[in-house]
Design a protein that fits this description.
Belongs to the iron-sulfur dependent L-serine dehydratase family. InterPro entries: Fe-S_L-Ser, Ser_deHydtase-like_asu. It holds the Pfam family SDH_alpha. The protein is an all-alpha fold and 302 residues long. It has one domain. It contains 13 helices and four strands. The chain has helices at residues 30-40, 44-52, 55-75, 91-96, 104-124, 140-152, 156-176, 181-184, 186-204, 209-221, 239-260, 268-281, 293-297; strands at residues 4-5, 12-13, 16-17, 130-131. The strands form two sheets. Strands 1-4 form a two-stranded parallel ribbon. A hairpin with a 2-residue loop joins β2 and β3. Bound molecules: iron/sulfur cluster. Iron/sulfur cluster binds next to α9 and α11. The site of iron/sulfur cluster has 13 residues, from α9 and α11.
Length: 302
């Protein structure tokens, strides 16, 4: 068992639990962090390095390596996932579906989805993945970062800084709300992953702190109310496909933030609080019990 984490999920490396140092950040909200960074004229990743120390970069290098490995493993695996739903792995199929007249936009969606499917299928098969922030939502962050590294030829150092920013967003959501599907539904899992991925992309593209906040906010806001209803309690349907859709959404949210951050009305902190209260108001049928939604209505083929 080897699971590593960015963004607050459990950390298990080779069977032993690794404890993150608690209370390492004195600031509790994005607003506090943003004010401090602006007052000291530092970036979010510089703030994270000041809090965590330079050792954070070796840790994140291991995270990034594990993420890329999970994509590679997923892309080279085929067959039916265990559990009885007869779900076929699709990552390799998606990756290989190139057409001569394929547009750049269609290719982008296809490759990003292939990477998200690859990691999520590895998770469903019990392979090694990075919780980002959870196992069920582990495909979103690696998919967008791997695709953008290939497309933009950015360095590993730039990716690690983006990962740190994504991790910070995940930690804030975990601290001020929840990243648990059992507590807040899928908005807390895949919604958080999308928010992390969008913020990471915004940092990767050199956006300022307000734009990063907007990217994270937009991504989470438009997952509000998303239920957790895994069929048969397996992290396969809707989970695998949902990771791919969230990865595409993360890119769109980042693009929107690039243009509209000056006009926004909703803060990241407000949408985190809203997500939490929405989650607490949800019926338990929609919080990982597999008693409602798709899990209730889907009939397994006999
Ligand atoms: S539907 Fe539930 S189990 Fe599946 S990814 Fe979302 S929160 Fe996780």
């Amino acid at each position: 068992m080897r699971v590593v984490s960015v963004g607050g999920g459990d950390i298990v490396i080779d069977g032993r639990e690794e404890m993150l140092v608690p209370d390492i950040y004195k600031e509790n909200t994005f607003s506090e962090i943003s004010s401090l960074c602006k007052a000291n004229n530092i970036s979010l990743s510089e703030y994270i390095e000041q809090c965590e120390g330079k050792k954070i970069w070796n840790f994140l290098y291991e995270i990034w390596d594990a993420m890329k490995h999970s994509i590679n493993e997923g892309l080279t695996s085929t067959g039916i996932l265990e559990g009885g739903l007869n779900v076929e792995r699709k990552a390799q199929f998606l990756y290989n579906q190139r057409h001569i007249d394929e547009s750049q936009e269609t290719r982008e969606n296809r490759i990003v989805c292939a990477y998200a499917f690859a990691v999520s299928e590895q998770n469903a098969a019990g392979g090694t993945i990075v919780t980002a922030p959870t196992c069920g939502a582990s495909g979103v962050v690696p998919a967008v970062l791997r695709y953008m590294q290939e497309k933009k030829h950015v360095t590993d150092e730039q990716i690690l800084r983006a990962l740190a920013v994504g991790g910070l967003i995940g930690n804030l959501i975990k601290q001020n709300a929840s990243i648990s599907g059992a507590k807040c539904g899928c908005q807390g899992e895949v919604g958080t992953a999308c928010s992390m991925a969008s913020a990471a992309l915004a940092d990767l593209f050199g956006m300022d702190i307000d734009q990063i906040e907007y990217a994270a906010e937009v991504a989470l806001e438009h997952h509000l109310g998303l239920t957790c209803d895994p069929i048969c309690g397996l992290v396969q349907i809707p989970c695998i496909e949902r990771n791919a859709v969230a990865a595409m959404r993360a890119i769109n949210a980042m693009s929107l933030a690039n243009f509209l951050s000056n006009t926004r009305k909703i803060s990241f902190d407000l949408v985190v609080q809203t997500m939490y209260e929405t989650g607490l108001d949800m019926s338990s049928d929609y919080r990982e019990t597999a008693d409602g939604g798709l899990a209730k209505l889907y009939k397994i083929d006999s």
